[in-house]
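U., I forgot to send this yesterday:
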Amino acid sequence: MRIAAEEVRAIIGKYSDMVLKIAYQNTRDLYESEDIVQEVFLALFSRPLIKDEEHLKAWLIRVTLNKSRSFLRSARRKVLPLDESLAPAERLAPEPSFTRDDVLEQLFSLPEAERNALYLHYYEGYSAKEIGKFLKRSENAVYILLSRGRAKLKELLKEDEDD
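Result:
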């Protein structure tokens, strides 16, 4: 079954920003995040299309998290970009579409599980039960991740405010 070009554009337009943000907040590398976005959508369009909107979004999140983890485990991560004249912060700087919000910036310093739980809950609006499915944890474990993550985030923001 062939997917119409308009349908492909609509799906990419609707979900690409979400996929990029999830990939970036896990890899902290804009270039790799863009590659992950391409890989996720290639995987999506190489299989029968998921018609249910919620199932599609959940599938995209799960695949993005998996591809981000694969990147972090890969040897490819240790390769330097071609333009080594740029400072690391300039190479990894997010596109202007990302907000420079202090909360989001501090979110990057949290452990992966807490970071993903907080992001999915507050930025994507998922419940603890739904997040548990994505992270393969119980609902109670997600509540603990959210609680610990909020406490750590509060401390980090307090330290920033004191500086």
